[in-house]
Amino acid sequence: MTKAALITGITGQDGSYLAELLLAKGYEVYGLVRRLSTPNMSRISHIADNIIFLEGDLTDQSSLNVAVQTAQPDEVYNLAAQSFVATSWNQPVLTGNVTGLGVTRILDAVKHFCRDAKFYQASSSEMFGNVEEVPQNEDTRFCPRSPYAIAKVYGYYTTVNYRESYGMFCCNGILFNHESPRRGIEFVTRKITDGVARIHAGHSKELRLGNLDAKRDWGYAADYVEAMWRMLQQDAPDDYVVATGESHSVREFVEMAFSSVGLDWRDHVKMDERFMRPAEVPELRGDASKAKEALGWAAKTSFEELVEMMVGADVERMVADHGR
């Protein structure tokens, strides 16, 4: 019997890779999309004909109720969020409403209309914040350092609460930073690779960045969506850290990105206070031992492969857009 899955945030980076994975496995895929004057379907345009789109919004309970009733999914993946940390300081109430309370709304819709569905919540390594230990695992205390991270902590505990209170199959995937050529241009990794491509093509001379010393555990998004799926194939629900186990500084990412096209980053990168966080998170590095043991999952793509992949894609895009 064909399984059905409902993905919120299907037009985003993770949603697009997850939709590809589920379609390849024979799922009927429903995607929740917000009504926009100009919908951004670029990441899923190649598979759009195979997806059933439902209009809805994490701030609107009635639309979520209708979406869940319509799809009657076996699995629900909640990937939608106001997901950019920097924006969360400028729009903290919106971030709390979407990224935090939105989890309660979608869980409540599932509880009322398809309680047997398995639920995945996209939690974040940002919840660890000002970390007390490195690496971080499922038992590490949360110390969020941004409105985004605080909202994600709310969503995490809401997911746990519905699991414990109503006996629902609810999982948190605590994903560390995961990137790809489909990453939004506002995120630092994609900002770097896009900047490198522009400078390499002669369309720009400098790249302005904030804290180069921040360290993150960077993996490939296409690897990570498989971990999401594996969580919902287990006999019992649980929470899992998904990470590579390595951390690299923004400076390392920059150096590798520029060197991949034969450039010295020091000739082009400028520090800009505008891009510094009000409260910095120095280092995030995950321990995914539990995911490896219980799910049989491990990251396949190295840091070097990821950087080269992203730079290569942006260089190709620059050639396609500008003819050089």
Automatic annotation (TrEMBL):
Cofactor(s) this protein cannot do without: NADP(+)
Domain NAD(P)-binding, residue spans: 6-310
Catalytic activity: GDP-alpha-D-mannose = GDP-4-dehydro-alpha-D-rhamnose + H2O
Gene Ontology molecular function terms on file: GDP-mannose 4,6-dehydratase activity
EC number: 4.2.1.47
InterPro entries: GDP_Man_deHydtase, NAD(P)-bd_dom, NAD(P)-bd_dom_sf
Keywords per UniProt: Lyase, NADP
CDD domains for this protein: GDP_MD_SDR_e
Signal sequence residues: none
Statement: the UniProt record of this protein carries the keyword Lyase: yes
Tagged with keyword Lyase: yes
UniProt superkingdom: Archaea
HAMAP family, A to Z: GDP_Man_dehydratase
Family: Belongs to the NAD(P)-dependent epimerase/dehydratase family. GDP-mannose 4,6-dehydratase subfamily.
Protein task: Catalyzes the conversion of GDP-D-mannose to GDP-4-dehydro-6-deoxy-D-mannose.
Protein's recorded name: GDP-mannose 4,6-dehydratase
Organism: Candidatus Methanocrinis alkalitolerans
